[in-house]
Design goal:
With 524 residues, the chain is α+β, with helices and mostly antiparallel strands. It has 2 domains: 287 residues, 3-Layer(aba) Sandwich (Beta-lactamase); 104 residues, Lipocalin, CATH 2.40.128.600. 29% of the residues lie in helices and 23% in strands. The strands form 4 sheets. Strands 1-3-2-13-12-11-10-9-8 form a 9-stranded antiparallel sheet, with helices on both faces. An 8-stranded antiparallel β-barrel has the order 14-15-16-17-18-19-20-21. Strands 4-7 form a two-stranded antiparallel sheet. A hairpin with a 2-residue loop joins β10 and β11. α1 runs antiparallel to α13. The two termini are 36 Å apart. 49% of the residues are buried.
């Protein structure tokens, strides 16, 4: 899922530090521990984050591993280097690496056709289905909309992986195949299904046995429900209607290969050191070949460069490899990714030429904190001009918040003058069906309309008249931050034929891919 931004104002609680004895110390770094401490403290206050973990690896050693704040708001248990976080889309690099192991063993090739391993795989265009490769699954160039199909797994549903794969055939492309970058989660789940098709082992078991165990990542787990000991794990938090609160853990089992790993700074440090060492683990074993590591971290899908990014980091190229973002920053290649599940965010960056890796984890939905902390640390290693990333992040957030508030305020302004719907309210009631998402129901409750999606308990809310046959659905779970316009289509005979949706706010997480929905009203 996309990193979501929310929040403001907080406190820094207890701090713990751990570093491996006998190894290089933080004193040799170009940024002092005191400055990192100050940056983290300011970021936690500015963006209302209860807990943060920071890790730095350099030249095959852990030179910094420190926890800040608390695992849960209102509790005393501190964050440390062993505290577990859900790492979200940083899982994708593990899925790509798992497939790289199979490439090394000659069991698959990157350019194998997906249908040769998964005959049930179908996309909207038969030509694209026939030509789609394993490499295509990993590089976000399918032609589908950003986040297409995410509503089949988020908010948590009871869809199976087989049902999600079947639903892909109904998603219409918004661009040409292999022509542009559109971030995708569902196709990473499909990529994970290549593993059981080839080996007979589940993605979860394969990642544990072939990556976690060789690297000594003993606390890490492929899914939240597979964590053996949750005694040192953060709780997720978000700002909901102006107040920072703990929110429930999203255990989205079905999308595993795209984003369900839980890990800590200690474990992820070993992961980065292995990649930086061209596939050799800290214990001296070969996990994956140097050739595969080079492929994972080479740009495949080119992305346009934001002028602001070019100015901030002197970036000349940007793209996506196999599970990694790839770009340049101040003359150095940077390999990175972020990950977000509701209430927990992770930031990972490597500068291979410097044999450097940086990790920043937070237990709050506001991505500005991790961006500010991580970039402040990277600046020091890259010799970048001195600037304050918290100020940069604050200004950026203020702009995005103002944009979102303006859109919501305009919607509220129209709602305030809306009269009754143009048709009798009973006309809208009924069962609606979308080819890939399934059923949704509009029902009459206490004189008003409510919309409820099937297969999940989360997408249910009141429909408020907005303009003509357009309503706004306000979801009961306010932590979703995803209220949407609902447009009902009307026949010439004044019957309701269907409905489509669109987010009210531009800040809505792209996993709410409402625009891909096309509900048709079912016959009574």
């Amino acid at each position: 899922m996309k990193v979501r931004y929310a929040g403001l104002v907080a406190l820094v609680a207890s701090v713990t530090f751990c570093a491996s004895p006998g190894r290089a110390s933080a004193s040799s770094m170009p940024i002092t521990p005191a400055r990192i401490d100050a940056t983290v403290a300011r970021a936690m206050r500015a963006f209302e984050v209860p807990g943060v973990a920071v890790g730095i690896v350099k030249d095959g050693q852990v030179v910094y591993a420190k926890g800040y704040g608390v695992r849960e708001l209102g509790q005393k248990a501190p964050v440390d280097a062993d505290t577990l976080f859900q790492i979200g889309s940083n899982t994708k690099a593990f899925t790509a690496a798992a497939l790289a192991l199979l490439v090394d063993e000659g069991k698959i090739r990157w350019d194998d056709k997906v249908i040769d391993h998964l005959p049930e795989f179908r996309l909207y265009d038969p030509y694209v289905t026939r030509e789609f490769t394993i490499r295509d699954l990993l590089t976000h160039r399918s032609g589908l909309r950003t986040g297409a199909g995410d509503l089949m797994f988020y908010p948590a549903t009871d869809f199976t992986r087989a049902e999600i794969i079947h639903g892909l055939r109904y998603l219409k492309p918004v661009g040409a195949f292999r022509s542009q970058f559109n971030y995708d989660n569902v196709l990473y789940m499909v990529a994970g299904q290549i593993i059981p098709a080839v080996t007979g082992e589940s993605w979860e078991d394969f990642v544990r046995a072939r990556i976690f165990e060789p690297l000594g990542m003993r606390s890490c787990a492929a899914r939240y429900d597979l964590i053996e000991n949750r005694g040192n794990m953060v709780a997720p938090h978000a700002v909901v209607e102006g107040k920072l609160v703990r929110i429930p853990v999203e255990n989205i089992v079905v999308i595993g290969p795209a984003g369900t790993i839980s890990c800590n700074v200690s474990g992820m440090s070993k992961w980065l050191m292995t990649l930086l060492a061209q596939g050799q683990t800290p214990a001296g074993q070969k996990l994956v070949s140097a050739e595969r590591v080079a492929e994972l971290t080479s740009m495949i899908t080119v992305q346009p460069i934001d002028p602001a990014l070019a100015a901030l980091s002197r970036t000349h190229f940007k793209g996506y490899g196999l599970g990694w973002n790839v770009q340049d920053a101040f003359g150095r290649k940077r390999v990175s990714h972020t990950g977000g599940v509701p209430g927990t965010l992770t930031w990972v960056s490597m500068i291979p030429e410097l044999n450097l890796g940086v990790l920043v984890f937070t237990n709050q939905d506001d991505g500005m904190a991790m961006e500010a902390i991580g970039n402040q640390i990277l600046d020091a290693w890259l010799g970048a001009p001195r600037r304050d990333w918290i100020d940069i992040a604050t200004a950026y957030k203020q702009g995005k918040v103002a944009e979102a508030r303006a859109a919501v305020a305009e919607a509220i302004k129209v709602s305030a003058t809306a009269g009754a719907a143009p048709l009798p309210i009973e006309t809208y009631v009924g069962r609606y069906v979308d080819a890939w998402r399934g059923e949704a129901t509009v029902r009459l409750v206490r004189g008003g309309l409510e919309l409820k999606f099937s297969r999940t308990d989360k997408l249910e809310g009141k429909l408020e008249p907005w303009s003509g046959n357009i309503f706004i659905v306000r979801w009961n779970d306010r932590s979703l931050n995803a209220d949407a316009f609902v447009r009902f289509s009307q026949s010439f005979g004044q019957d309701i034929e269907g409905m489509t949706l669109k987010p009210v706010s531009p800040a809505t997480d792209f996993s709410f891919d409402f625009e891909d929905l096309d509900f048709r009203k079912a016959q009574p």
